Amino acid sequence: MYHYDVFISYERRAEAISKWVRNHFHPRLCELLDGNLDRDVRVFFDGSVRVGGKWPDELRSALRHTRVLVPVCSPKYFYNEWRLAEWASMARREELAGSDRPATLIYPVIYCDSKNFPPYAHERRMRNLTEWNHPYEQFQVSAKYIDFHDEMNGIATEIEELLSAAPAWQPDWPVLTSRPDTPPASRFPRL
């Protein structure tokens, strides 16, 4: 069964994107989806991983049990093996779900610079949020934040439609993963 409605995928090492997701995108998406749905919404993002949890295992499990992937796209997103594995996993699920009207399980939003995205990303319609990509909390008290909130309301409405059309959960949904990182060499000599 599904445990999450949405899995937010983004380049965590990009400080501005990480702050924007935590300060603005994630809270507004949760708030608006929760207001639109007749049940509690569950959104997975990196803050959902438990302390002590094994990162790759938690990601695999969350992705397998999520209805819709929401990638926050930037040029570096498409060079990260983990982000690509998340995208490819959901794209494969779309193929496996089949039917006359294929399921849409990837809802990409543009954080910045879409001209440098790979061709397969340009095949999808994306929601452009570059006008509101201000990472700092002060953005919430600006006049532009009302427009951002309105845009997020439209996103929540569209995602709600995708959630209701998501295929029934399958225990064998494929989850592609990145190769594990090689442990760093010790900086101390062996005794």
UniProtKB/TrEMBL annotation:
Which domain of life, per UniProt? Bacteria
Which region is the signal sequence?
A: none
Cross-referenced SMART domains = TIR (SM00255)
Report the InterPro entries cross-referenced here: TIR_dom, Toll_tir_struct_dom_sf
Q: Which Pfam families match?
A: TIR_2
Domain called TIR: residue spans = 2-152
Descriptive protein name: TIR domain-containing protein
Q: Which organism does this record belong to?
A: Amycolatopsis halotolerans
